[in-house]
Write a structure and sequence with these properties.
The complex is a heterodimer of chains A (about 220) and B (about 250). Chain A is mainly α. Chain A contains nine helices and no strands. The two termini of chain A are about 30 Å apart. Chain B is α/β, with parallel strands linked by helices and about 250 residues long. Classes of the chains: A mainly alpha (about 220), B alpha/beta (about 250). Chains A and B meet through α8 and α9 of A and α2, α3, α4 and α5 of B.
């Protein structure tokens, strides 16, 4: 499972501020719905591929993996539209979705998590007025990204342990017997992580700062 | 983990007295009715100290007392003259802590970001942060993994990353809680060599007795008490005898 999709490169796209890339992604989404034609969607897809493969120099496999992940959704959209409206509309809707998925993949692959989280923190800044600490919001997002694969791994381990003892790995019963021990592990891990955060000074309040992603290329 | 209001001032005026080492004065700790540690009264000024004991003997709680992760139910713990009860932030800046399971210690998705985390908390400027992160990653063979997802590292690399995340904060002391328990022989040896080469004073809680070779002092903890306090050879022999009688 690969949640962290960042692909280190030295390109213009990589150097663009995360906020600009996210804004661009939003503008693209709006534009694709504002110009509902197959030609526009096709041109947008070509543009996204050009930016991702030629400008950002991402490996084809990175974008192919994202396309593969949504292939059944795309096919379902195409088929449903073909049956209910027409094939052209189906192709347009599928193409639009594919374009957005690939554009999001390009943004993710060219932007460090820390930079992305910094944008979220800036957006959350007004919430300081009601006592919310943007840095805590950012940390929560970062930790969610970090621990999803860990939890998947723990769940796999529990399922394997049950299978080794002849238990079922499918169905409702398997789900029940996985969820309970996983919950126990998650609670234990939450306690351990909280200790680790304390040990690394999470309780300290540093002076206001701009988040910065450490890189080896530009120390 | 406690949350503090924004704008609260971090402890900065606490002055350490490095020569004093670790002082535990009549320390006891209990979880509810269960007594985990009692009557611990010792001073540690040695640079390399090991702690051994059976599972559930209280040695992990002992380790957690040393950087204020656990506050004593009775007595006082002083680290270089700083009281863990009243000067906990200053204590944690002096004492790094490496946990048994690195997965619980790594909180950021990528290697470099995780190493930088403690520095962010200390308010280290971004430029200096990047330099220190790069330096510590290079020193521990993780430079090529800076942008890698942490969850894709091997067990040994994860433990190295966890240690790098502590070392980058340049603590005066480091407490290791069973740092090699989850590792294979090669990685365990690598971590042992790393610990042996550290300039910081270390306290290592371990079941791996050969890790204690060359240490200055070893404590044997049993049923919440320090039952042996000697050089590694004598302490390990006493520990073996103790366990053989069970």
């Amino acid at each position: 499972m690969t949640l962290a999709l960042y692909v280190p490169r030295s390109s213009v796209v990589h150097r663009l501020p995360a906020g600009v890339k996210l804004l661009g992604l939003g503008v693209l989404a709006v534009a694709l719905f504002a110009l509902p034609t197959l030609t526009a969607a096709g041109a947008a897809l070509a543009g996204v591929l050009a930016v991702g493969l030629l400008v950002a120099r991402l490996p084809v496999a990175v974008l192919a993996r994202q396309a593969r992940a949504v292939r059944w959704w795309l096919l379902a959209l195409l088929v449903v539209h073909a049956l209910t409206t027409d094939v052209r509309t189906g192709a347009h809707v599928a193409l639009r979705l594919l374009t957005l998925v690939l554009a999001a993949a390009v943004v993710t692959a060219t932007t460090r998590v820390a930079a992305m989280v910094a944008v979220v923190e800036r957006l959350c800044a007004p919430l300081r007025l009601v006592g919310v600490r943007p840095a805590r919001v950012g940390l929560a997002i970062t930790m969610a990204l970090r621990f999803i694969p860990v939890l998947v791994e723990r769940a796999d381990r529990i399922r394997a342990a049950q299978a080794a003892r002849g238990g079922s790995t499918r169905g409702l019963r398997a789900l029940r017997t996985t969820v309970a021990p996983l919950l126990v592990q998650v609670l234990q891990m939450a306690h351990d992580v909280s200790e680790a955060l304390d040990a690394r000074g999470a309780d300290d309040v540093p002076p206001p700062r701009r988040r910065h992603s450490p890189t080896l290329e530009t120390p | 983990m406690r949350f503090r209001r924004p704008g609260a001032v971090a402890a900065g005026a606490d002055v350490a007295e490095p020569g004093r080492g670790l002082e535990l004065h009549e320390v006891g700790h209990r979880y509810g009715d269960r007594v985990v540690l009692e009557g611990i009264d010792l001073t540690v000024t040695e640079r390399r100290v090991g702690v051994v004991g059976a599972n559930g003997s209280g040695k992990s709680t002992f380790a957690r007392l040393l950087n204020g992760l656990v506050l004593p139910s009775a007595g006082r713990v002083l680290v270089d003259g700083l009281d863990t009860r009243t000067q906990v932030r200053a204590v944690r800046r002096r004492v790094g802590f490496v946990f048994q399971d690195p997965d619980a210690q790594i909180v950021h998705p990528t290697v470099a970001e995780d190493v930088a985390y403690g520095l962010e908390n200390q308010g280290v400027p971004p430029e200096e942060r990047a330099v220190r992160v790069a330096e510590v990653l290079a020193r521990h063979g993780l430079a090529g993994h800076a942008d890698h997802p942490a969850h894709l590292l091997s067990g040994g690399q994860k433990q190295l990353l966890a240690i790098a995340g502590v070392l980058v904060m340049q603590p005066a002391r480091i407490v290791f809680d069973e740092p090699t328990t989850l590792l294979d022989l090669v990685n365990a040896r690598r971590i042992a060599e790393l610990i042996a080469g550290l300039e910081q004073a270390v306290v290592v809680v371990t079941h791996q007795l050969d890790l204690l070779d060359g240490f200055d002092r070893v404590l044997v903890v049993d049923r919440g008490r320090v039952v042996e306090d000697a050089d590694p050879r004598a302490a390990v022999a006493a520990y073996r005898t103790l366990m053989a009688d069970r």
